[in-house]
Amino acid sequence: MPGTPSPSPEGSVAQFLGPCAPARLFPPVPPIPDWARLEPNRPRPRPRPWRAAGGNSSALSWRGGSAPSWAAPPVRIAQAPPPGGHVAQQQDGGVRSVTEEPPRAPRVPRPARAMVTEQEVEAIGRTLLDAAQPLPARFRALFTLRNLGGRAAVEWIGRAFGDGSALLKHELAFCLGQMQDEAAIPVLISVLEDTAQEPMVRHEAGEALGAIGNPDVLDILKRYSQDPVVEVAETCQLAVRRLEWLQNNKEKPSTTPYLSVDPAPPAEETDVAKLREILLDESQELFDRYRAMFALRNVGGQAAVLALAEGLRCGSALFRHEIGYVLGQLQDEACVPQLTAALRSRAESPMVRHECAEALGSIARPSCLQALRAFASDEERVVRESCQVALDMYEYENGAQFQYADGLCKLQASS
Ligand SMILES: [Fe+2]
Ligand SMILES: [Fe+2]
Known about the structure:
Layout: H1 9-17, H2 34-38, E1 75-78, E2 87-89, E3 95-100, H3 118-129, H4 135-148, H5 151-159, H6 166-179, H7 185-193, H8 199-212, H9 218-224, H10 230-248, H11 272-280, H12 286-299, H13 302-310, H14 317-330, H15 336-344, H16 350-363, H17 366-375, H18 381-398, H19 407-414
Antiparallel strand pairs: 1-3, 2-3
The protein binds fe (ii) ion (2 copies).
One fe (ii) ion binds near residues 204, 207 and 321.
């Protein structure tokens, strides 16, 4: 099947055990199942990773699709080295070990463990900060840092907020939120407070503060719930509701197939028609509509995808951009026309067009390509850059690359 690499067993083993191992936080493309060889036209499940989350919680999330069982749990970052494991010295003096567990593929051996040095983290951080690098390479460096986690990674990510790319900066904030490392709180607050930062960046900083889950930021979030920039205000309102929900519900939001840290817990309702009704009802509170959104995502299936896609025509740019994000997670081709229409609409908010572009890159079907290529030179910088990054995602999804977050792998291969 074109675009579905099938590395040799030896190749897989070498990649798992080689120096690239610690950065291999995304699983390899699984072997082609027999049914796919026999029925090449049958749609194949595409639980492809894009954004991984977890950081110090050591879990990965999958922006594009649910975490496949053969990859769970992909990474463990332990405080003490496992027997026979390698350890990494962190900048704060702590020692941690990086352990990967193998995918389900039977030919893959025991978890790989390898060393990540301060110098390597620094080199990846420098790639992230280097404006001369192509944006997709800087994105990959960012996700490598996010997957590595730890104080040094948080610091390197925090240093990039002076960049000229709103797209990159909003992704920095997203990653810091997904890492759920409280060390990131000060920089996120400063970004939220900085009105010179683009609304999309401040929005993501507010959302990240909610994602980290520390109630100490409640007062700040309440203050910015009244921000004149509506995307920032709505984000902070949601983050306040999330933190209050966490306080009132001793347990964290239930585990979902998508291990991302979402701005609202999924609704308990699972009926698609009822969830759709709440989702599209603009008289409902935004938090409840978000809860319906994440419940629909978790239920999945084409009816849920199409209900979500209807949300691209609802009020609130923030709401529509989150719909785009969720559709990117779902990776269902059924919503390509709606995503493409939103990307093409110059009347649409750039934040929404950006998220729709990335969703198309995550879905990564040929039907996504034309619009991504057409808008890779859009006059709106954030749209243009999103399409460029999305095309890189498309290439990753359809190619033989071992992992998306390949910063460490590239670094070690070049040394
Ligand atoms: Fe966002
Ligand atoms: Fe985004």
